[in-house]
Amino acid sequence: MELQQILQQRFGYDAFREGQQEIIEAVLSGHDTLALLPTGMGKSLCYQLPGYVVEGTILVISPLLSLMQDQVEQLRQFGEKRVAALNSFLSFDDKQFVWQHFDAFRFLFLSPEMLASDAVKNRLQQMKLGLIVVDEAHCISQWGFDFRPEYLQIAEALPKERPPILALSATATNQIMRDITHYLGMEKVSTFIHSVDRKNIHYEAVETTSFEKANAIIQQVTQFEGPGIIYTQSRKRTMEYASMLQQVGIRATFYHGGMEQQDRMFVQRQFMHDEVDWICATNAFGMGIHKNNIRQIIHDHLPQNVASYMQEVGRAGRDGGEALATLYYEKRDAERTLEMATLDLPTDWHISRYMACEEPQQLVEAGEMTETAFRVLHYWMRQLAPLQVSQKIQELASEKQQQVMALAKIITAPCIRTQLVAYFDEELLEKPKNCCSGCGLQKSEILAPYIEKNEPKALENWQWRLKHLLPFN
């Protein structure tokens, strides 16, 4: 069956989006493939369609439960029944069912941590795999070294006689691409790179103070149309923003990694079904959220690196409509962000305690080390000598500082867009109207005013309440 016919019959699309067909053809030709497609360009189809051409299971290694669940539900909407995700979200009975029918699924989703288990490794050795997919592959470089070391061990878990690997991401520098291909053990790689520049996303950076920031954000939300996402670093702050927005009549709620899984899934569904217009969230929210009409992304802080920032703002304007990405920052933001970025890195003291302890895992149970710091340290202690581990941790801290400072420099540049594109080793050839705050932009030309939708009396009431809101520190 021809690709065009499968596209129409299975997925209901009349034509491929830019880049999709070339990537699919490379995979079907047996090539290891690295594909960078901007958010909203249909990366998932690049492995979904081959599932109806190749023999064997399509193994998808995915970073988040919410992302897996979204991808599973998307395939089921296309009529696929032989699809499952093996993760902690499943009940005991459902896990048993997936395990018993492991090699019967057309699409099977696993996390890197699940892939690292001996039971799963052994099962994969006995299976017929048609394609191995690493979704959001930039996480190998972004998370593998200092957050989720299982990402660096993916290649070790794969069968020696494996099918092609397809690594997918929206953003990656040349160094990140080298990390991806190296740690996945990819060979003779076919690479497809599409520009990270999204002309319909307009960038704004606003210097402010802690005292002014909250009211500025609330005022922007009430003045210009959503839906949108407000990103903040603090779980407490997500709740405070949501409360303030609710006080002025905006349908808003909060989301963070400390919530129960069921509650997080409920919030996602509310947002997807337009039951709430604004999500106030930590960076735990967004990956796998395919909502096309997001008009605004607001940051109240400096993210930890340029790649994270681009991933987050890239969730806006997926329908091709105009979107605004606003970042409110203070002079000390780089310092604060660096503190957050290095919070879970192990120290020399942790290394000494690890070496002195017969059961290092007890350090976590005793509260001497966070779970993340232990997993990172445990990985590197098996790779390097103790002195080299100390040097490696110092290198990671230095890299994080460089990444934070790179973004701090970009948002204060004469043209934010030019510097963002340059960071990903591209050259900006054309600027759109209302390019960025450095070039000058008019929000009213990008987004329709939201307050015009309200009756004058209601508007006066909102303005009074905004004026009397107390900003938080």
UniProtKB/TrEMBL annotation:
Pfam families: DEAD (PF00270), Helicase_C (PF00271)
Superkingdom in the source lineage: Bacteria
Domain Helicase C-terminal: 216-385
Keywords of the record: ATP-binding, DNA-binding, Helicase, Hydrolase, Nucleotide-binding
Gene3D superfamilies: P-loop containing nucleotide triphosphate hydrolases
Stretches assigned to the Helicase ATP-binding domain: 24-190
A molecular-function term among this protein's GO annotations: hydrolase activity
Keyword Nucleotide-binding: yes
EC number of this enzyme: 3.6.4.12
Name recorded for this polypeptide: RecQ family ATP-dependent DNA helicase
